[in-house]
Design a protein that fits this description.
single chain, 2 domains, two-stranded parallel sheet
């Protein structure tokens, strides 16, 4: 599961997500079409994972709100085995003390893999 948390969604200009849905009465199915820059970015990430050799099913979810709270709540609600985070503050011990990554690590009880983002 890939999770993207959008903080301050109300302040992001020019970004939207378009959702269209249709219900087929013949086979009792609901089809949804979701488009937008966030969806495109997530699908690009999934493509990269598959190109790197991932054979598992990859799904994604969007949440809005406080980054730390949303990730911690998601982990607690869904019972994941591991969290993988990126951090741009991993190179500085002082900055990492106050980072969102540190706050997440302190509030979950499962292993966390932190990958340096540059």
């Amino acid at each position: 599961m890939l999770l993207i948390v959008i903080e301050n969604a109300d302040k992001i200009e020019g970004t939207s997500v378009s959702v269209e849905g249709s219900y087929n009465t013949d086979d009792d199915s609901l089809k949804r079409n979701v488009q937008g820059p966030f969806v495109d970015a997530m699908e690009d990430t999934i493509r990269k994972c598959k190109e790197a050799g991932c054979k598992n099913k990859i799904s994604y979810k969007f949440r809005t709100g406080n980054l730390v709270s949303e990730i911690v709540d998601e982990v607690k609600a869904q019972g994941y085995d591991m969290v993988v985070l990126t951090s741009s503050h991993i190179d500085s011990w002082i900055r990492s003390l106050f980072s969102n990554t540190r706050k997440i690590i302190s509030n979950v009880t499962i292993p966390v893999l932190v990958v340096a983002a540059r």
